[in-house]
């Protein structure tokens, strides 16, 4: 190994050490979910790979705005979308802020880097008749069918993320009061109203099936289980929703998140305040919720077109 290669090896080993420290920081000191933590680490590893690819002999303290601008340009040339680029930049911003906090760097090189402009994509939404179509397509004579009906009812009634659904606990269900307690991103809890139909079908599942099941240790308090008495995975819920959509004859790409989008859109179309929907969705910023006002405007424009004498 020549002198330059040896120096590069030492440089990238030192950066790996910073990344390990960043991981421990996220794990122990920051209230971020496991998914966010792993995404941040992947983002920083992409920067590390880029520096190695370009043979940059730079200590992390020497990385500047120029290298980061080159990195973003490289991501563009790879064909990554603006959204993906912004996601990767966000993870690296968190990394350099950590280094600044730790006193490893004097200036944050990401501070002057602008995020790529993202065209706001409106989420896929089911109409209420389509939701009814999916619910009616479920065979309620089986364990899976009864459980799956309860899952869809809860997704649509409460606007849950799939991770929130699979981690829903019996001790956090207050059906008599019409609420459930949800543990969302960053372990933040919120109370969400639950509708009568969601309560009805969940109680049918709990009474007629779940109560008779043998639970694997550690899953006694989970609401939704598979036949082996274990919690459902996120992938399993995606497959359940996809299969029901196909059975119902809906050919669009439908996921559990589609029910969350439909929940928010139908509430706003019905006159609910943006602030109330923000609270129920667990959005930290109201600007995240505001995307549903675009859907509402489209709905209003459609109403004008269909029913106004001079559209």
Instruction: Count the beta strands.
Output: 3
Report the span from N to C terminus. Answer: 75 Å
Mind summarizing the main beta sheet? 3 strands, antiparallel
Instruction: State the helicity in percent bands.
Output: 55-70%
> What count of domains describes the coordinates?
2
Notable characteristics:
13 helices, 2 domains, mainly alpha, hpI Integrase, Chain A, single chain, DNA polymerase, domain 1
What does this structure look like?
By secondary structure, the protein is mainly alpha-helical. It contains 13 helices and three strands. Helix 6 crosses helix 10 (256-269).
What would you say about this model in short?
With 311 residues, the protein is mainly alpha-helical. Helix content is 58%, strand content 4%.
Provide the fold topology.
Blueprint: H1 3-28, H2 34-53, H3 65-77, H4 82-101, H5 128-136, H6 143-158, H7 162-166, E1 173-174, E2 179-183, E3 189-193, H8 196-208, H9 234-247, H10 256-269, H11 274-281, H12 286-289, H13 291-307
Antiparallel strand pairs: 1-2, 2-3
Helix pairs in contact: 1-2, 2-4, 6-8, 6-10, 10-13
